[in-house]
Amino acid sequence: MQVVQAVRFGGPGVLEVGEAPDPVAGPGQVVVDVSFADTLFLDIVIRRGVPGPWAVRPPYVPGFGVAGRVLSAGDGVDRSWVGRDVVGRPGAFGPGPDTGDVEQAAAGFSPTGGYAERATLSTGAMFPVPDGLGLDQAAALINDGFTAMQIAEAAGIRSGERVLVMPAGGGLGSLLVQLAHAAGAQVVAAARGRRKCELARSLGADAAIDYAEEGWPERVREATDGKGLDVVLDGVGGEIGRLAFPVAAPGGRFFAFGSPSGSFTEVDPGEARERDVTVVGLMQLPMRPGDERRLPAQALAQAAEGRITPVIGQTFPLRDAAAAHAAMEARGVIGKTLLLPEGTAEAGL
Fold it and tell me: Please, where are the H alpha helices in 17-170?
């Protein structure tokens, strides 16, 4: 089968297309014929060799999520799974890779990633694709849907609150805009570029601010009539995240969960206390027993019911994974980016 491996740490060019033996389902596992493979910025962070709590050494197959049809089942697995459409996290994942026990997630993903024509899923980390939901939509939700549900629950967004979502034009941010809007909040979206701002407005944002422009924090304040934000959902980090902190109103909640800028937002605890703003980092997001299944299932169900819609902005053939990574790093993508194995692309899916 065709796979994409990171042969060493480095830029997108370290992702090379190769051949590998078809996987064999072990006890409690199934083999899935992959139709769509998810991409995350975490794939890029690990590929670059950024130090972190992940037990990954090249060469390895990246990829934290796949959707496709079950080809075979191992010992202890109900044979009725064979032939069904499923979505899940390759390897032995428990918590999602962007939250919870990152070390466990990365260690589970290392030898059996999703950038492949076939992948193994443990029954504890896979879900049937609900009726009415496409395999592409399921793949787009298996990770970002999990994280969006976790963040939205932790934020406890209430009707009438003022909420800033940034970046609002990606796979995760576009879901958070929808969830905040559905909760009855006044949603201010921040994103890079006109296309992403327009997307956020179409998903329910009351205002959309381009944070690539000078003075954007002042425009965020203006969008709330100078009142500031009750909730800031910061998935950008770095200097942009730091500039967002002062727009949080006294008594507000600031969630720093993303670092595509290169680092998580750092907030001085003394400043947070002085301004009476509660700061919650990525590893402080609550994770209760069973959430690793409850939250993805909730996201899939809400999408099947039409309550949220994953935005799939672009797809790349699996062999062009390096180009997909390069586009993501250049901020040249909108919504979610998925990889398509050869068979999927040839079928026009």
Answer: 41-48, 102-109, 135-141, 144-155
**Quick one: CA torsion of 2, 107, 121, 87, rounded to 10 degrees?**
-90
Side chain identity at residue 239, one-letter code: E
Q: What is the mean pLDDT of residues 111-135?
A: 92
* pTM confidence score: 0.90
- Measure the CA–CA gap between 15 and 58, rounded to whole angstroms: 10
Q: Could you say which DSSP state residue 306 is in? A: T
DSSP string covering 131-192: TT--HHHHHHHTTHHHHHHHHHHHHT--TT-EEEEES-SBHHHHHHHHHHHHTT-EEEEEES
Please state, for a pLDDT cut of 90, what percent of the chain lies above it.
Answer: 85
- Taking the C-alpha atoms of residue 76 and residue 112, their distance in angstroms, rounded to an integer, is 20
Outline where DSSP puts E strands in the chain. 2-6, 15-19, 29-38, 66-73, 85-90, 118-128, 162-166, 186-191, 207-210, 229-234, 248-256, 278-281, 312-317, 336-340
Helix, strand, coil share (%) of the chain residues, nearest 5: 35, 25, 40
